[in-house]
Each structure stands twice: as structure tokens, then as C-alpha cells.
Amino acid sequence: MKKNRILTLLILIISALSQLPVEARNRPNILFMMSDDHASEGIGAYESWLKEYCHTPAIDKLALEGIRFSNICCNNSICSPSRASIISGQYSHVTGALNLGCELRPNAPSYIRELTNSGYQTCVVGKWHMKQFPRGASDFAVTVGQGSYFNPTLHRPSGNKEKYQGYYADRYTDWALKWLKQRDKKKPFYLSLHFKGPHEYFEYPKRWSKLHEGVNIPEPPSLHEDITKTSPLLKGKHYSVLYDEEGPKSFYLVYEDFLKRHSENPKERRSIAYQHMIHKYLRCVAAIDDNVKRVVDYLKEEGNYDDTLIIYTSDQGYWLGQHNMHDKRLILEESLKMPLIIRYPMEIKAGSINNKLGMNIDFGPTILDYANVAIPSVMQGVSLRPLLQGKNPANWRSAIFYAYYNRSPKHWGIRTERYKLIRFPDTEVVEFYDLQEDPKEMYNRGSENGYIKQITRTQQQLNSLMTEVGITRNFLIDKMGDNAKLPPRIHKKRSKKK
Fold first, then answer.
1. pTM for the complete prediction?
2. Of 398, 432, 447, which residue is a domain's last?
């Protein structure tokens, strides 16, 4: 009889808990921090050749206390489309957000809206970079377009504009901390804090102006690759190189008036441009890390540090001189892959590293999973939670689909656990990389006889994946158009005027 009474009592308690409003249940707070063009190689925890030069102690500590993913990929490596995919959990061809200045379709899902509707108090602060303002958020203070590095303007739901003096990252974080302090603390919170940096022009505050001053920072091994020979259809047509006599936009020529020294030698020009870029980039990153620390410190002071799912990522990767390039856009590793660091000690083992293939379309489903909110069936991503828990699902994705529509070289392709096949709208010629034998992607195997069978198998895998994600070759060719010619050369020098 006593056991029956205890069982009845437990049933009543469970029933009562299930009747509580969603916001009253034990759900984590969520802090989502995203930078723009922050390459994994620009974070110390990722242990690249820049490890000793990355001033990222706050971000590195999140990785030390949480998990670091090494193979998270975007499906379209350009700012606005990647952000649209993160919000909607859908590929670019489904959201309709193919290029910069895009907008989500009216019926596009939004994980932030789902959180708000489920009882979370939600807020987005910082760079938004889509035509519509955040839809479904409780509050927002965001930029229109890129926003400014100094003296930023933030737009509010009321239609008002708020102008601030100083460095953007400091002001964005001021705003975020103010919101955290004033929020309804009876509800769990979701906060998006989106940094502008380290997007070109890589501006930094005065406090970091001496970082690595006078130091010659090591170069990536592929800095002086002759990309017009090694990869004529992909790297050779990329818009932004450090220096190439035939390149459409050479960093050296654009920033020539800012460089400390000059040369007529192409190799030296490349090295000079790299040093100028990497010093600015690392200083810009250091200012982001300052502000990551400010928010983390506040969570600690408030007693919510361990109760908050903390995420740090970027909207895509970025070339820091590899393959004689800067910028992003291509399916190659440094552009395709995004850093992703998550801390939540209730489920994530400290110091974990995961090498499974993930995507930006997985971010929303993962956040909704932790918030105990149903994932909309129209989202194409999946929750990363099993990986965060240290599990190894047998049916995890074995490949990702990628398509880039913005400007030459427009292309699409597949990245499997070992291989990468790249196709173009105006030729049957492919580029093909063996990531096991050639992790730096220095050798295009697309025309090598020894890889013909593997290329055929990978093409079949790409065909199946395209059917799965709902895209056709005709759609790609129609949206990409002519890709045969290099874009016009642009060497307009950057003005020193503010």
C-alpha cells in the first residue's frame, strides 16, 4: 500500500509539472555570439599556424570548458545568405536568400520566433545584414547593412535610431548587457550578440593598436601558390587575392597607400599585403574577445554562467592568406568551414572536440532542441545535441551540399568526409580534391586518371544529395548565369579619409 501511495504521489507531481507554462520549466538561457568573417584559424583554440598570435583568451576558455567543432560548414559562404540559413534552418535555395542584401521569404521559419512564442524573452543586438529587421524577437537593436566600426547606429522596433560614440563592439556589448540587466528574469532568455568584425576593413580600437607591432607574423604555407595554374576554374577566378598580376582585386594595390613598405617583386608584394592584413585582423579579433569576456563575466556575476547555453561562431570562414587569397565565397575549406564553440556543462564534456560534418542550418534546430521547443518540419537542419552529448549517431550526415551564386566563380558541389567535387555552370570540367591526401587543397585531381572512378562515385553522391535537399542542376544554372569570364579588375585604392 505504501508503495502504491508513493507511486500515486509521483504521478501527481509529474502531471502537475507538465501543466506548468513552458517558460516555467527548467530550460537553459541561451547566448548566441556571432562574428563576421572570423576564421577558425583566427582563434587560438583551433591551433592553426597563428595560434601563438591570436589574442582570444575568452573564446579559448569557452572551448576549454565546452566543445569545439572542426567540420561545421555553411551552405553558401557569404554574409547575408549564411545568416538567413542560420535563422531559418534552410538552404539558400529554399530561403530565397541567394546573395547579399537578401531577404527571407515571408513564410520562412525563424528559430528566434519559435523561442519567443514558447515563452523565451528574446533579443538581437548588432549586425543583422538582411533587408527585414528581426521578425518575432521580443526586442532588437540592429544595424542596417554592414554598420560602422566607429560611432554605430542601431535601429529599434519602434523605428527609432540610436546613435552611439566609440568602437562598435564595445557599444553593441553595452546595449546587450543593459538588456540582460533589465530583462524579465522570470523568463529564460535568448540573446543574439552579432559583431561586425573582423570583416574587412578590420578596424580596431586604439587599445589594441600596438598588438604585434614590429612582429613578422608567420605566413601560411600556401601564400605563394600560383592559383591560375593549380585551380584555374575556382581559385584562379576568385575576386580577392593578396597580389596577382592578373587578379581582379589585389589587396596590395587597394591598400598601397597604407603599407609600410613597397616592392615591385610579386612575391614580396604578397608578403607585404599579408602582414598588413593579418596585423589588422588579429587586432580586430582581440576587441571581439574583450567583449565576449564582458558578457561571460556578467553571467558569472549573476549566477547564470553554468545555466546558459553559450555559443560562439561566425557566419562563415575567411582566407588569411592561404592560396594567395583573402575574403571567402568558395567551397574550399578555409571559406566553407565556420568555427563553432559551445559551452553547457550540464551536458557537454569540457575540452571536447568533434569532427563530424555539421552545417549552419543545424544551429536553429539545436537551439530549439535545448529550449524544449518543437523543431518546425520545414527546417532542413538537424539538432547537433547528440554530438554535444558525446554520442556517435550511426546515421549522421556523410556529406554537405554547397552552392555559391554571387559572382565569378559561381559554383556548386559536395564535401564528403574525404572528398570534394566542384562543378560550374558553364563547363563539364570539375575540380576534385582528396582531403585525406591533400588537406590543404593544393592539388586539383579533377583531370587525373587515377581519380576517375572516385569522381564518378562522388558525382552520384552529389546527385542524390541534390534530390534530398530539393535543388536541380537547371535551377543552379539559371540562378548562376554566365561564369566564363573573370570579373573586371578592381584596384581602386582605399582612401585614407574617414
1. 0.93
2. 398
